[in-house]
Design brief:
With 211 residues, this protein is of the alpha+beta class. The protein starts with a strand and ends with a helix.
């Protein structure tokens, strides 16, 4: 599961890339980990009454990474960062209501591989999208005491399977139409975007490129 990612752009740059309103977001760039606030992009309809079909301007807004789990969870204190089963009743209500879907901007993400280094620790593998300086994970947010979000996953592509993973985060194509579909379309259309990103469009980063 993705447990760390980078967003190396400020709020103004993110908003320009995704044609969103930056509002008063103070993000300046850096690493994101579970339990931290991160900029996400919503369709901008959270506080607007009226027909759902009306188009609104997407907006950048901070949300906590990690949705509080249901009360019967084995670890009720640990937030859910990744959605592996979008058909679960825990997620279906939000995913089928487009105002709760969001874009999660990122510039790189980390996955733990199954292999270990000489010190016996599992190795980190960092990836970026070679065709997008800034890309978007497909995300979903929930309204609780502190509004929070999670990242959708899908089957791993060949590059991620090589390090022993069976799932990967959903990276949306470099296409404003895909972003709009995820933010505004009905679930039947939006669900078609839950596909592995092409291995040919991903680049594994080394220590020097992460500096």
């Amino acid at each position: 599961m993705t447990m760390l990612y980078r967003l190396d752009a400020n709020a103004k740059q993110i908003a320009a890339t995704f044609a969103a309103s930056a509002g008063k977001d103070q993000w300046t760039g850096g690493y994101l980990a579970p339990g931290k606030f991160a900029p996400i992009i919503t369709g901008g309809r959270e506080f607007i009454a009226g027909p759902r079909g009306a188009r609104t301007k997407p907006r950048l807004t901070p949300r906590l990474w990690g949705v509080p789990p249901p009360p019967n969870s084995n670890d009720p204190a640990r937030g859910i960062t990744n959605v592996r089963n979008p058909s679960s009743p825990f997620w279906t209500g939000n995913l089928r209501n487009s105002e709760f879907r969001c874009l999660v901007p990122a510039s790189a993400f980390m996955e733990w591989g199954n292999s270990r280094g000489q010190d016996g620790r599992r190795l980190q593998h960092w990836y970026s999208a070679s065709d997008q300086e800034l890309f978007a994970f497909a995300g979903v947010w929930k309204d609780s005491e502190i509004p929070s979000f999670a990242i959708l996953t899908c089957n791993a592509n060949a590059q991620l399977r090589r390090i022993g993973l069976d799932h990967m985060p959903v990276i949306l194509p470099k296409d404003g139409g895909a972003w709009e579909t995820w933010l505004f379309a009905d679930w039947k259309r939006a669900e078609t975007l839950l596909q592995p990103y092409s291995s040919s469009m991903m680049r594994e980063l080394t220590g020097s490129t992460l500096a």
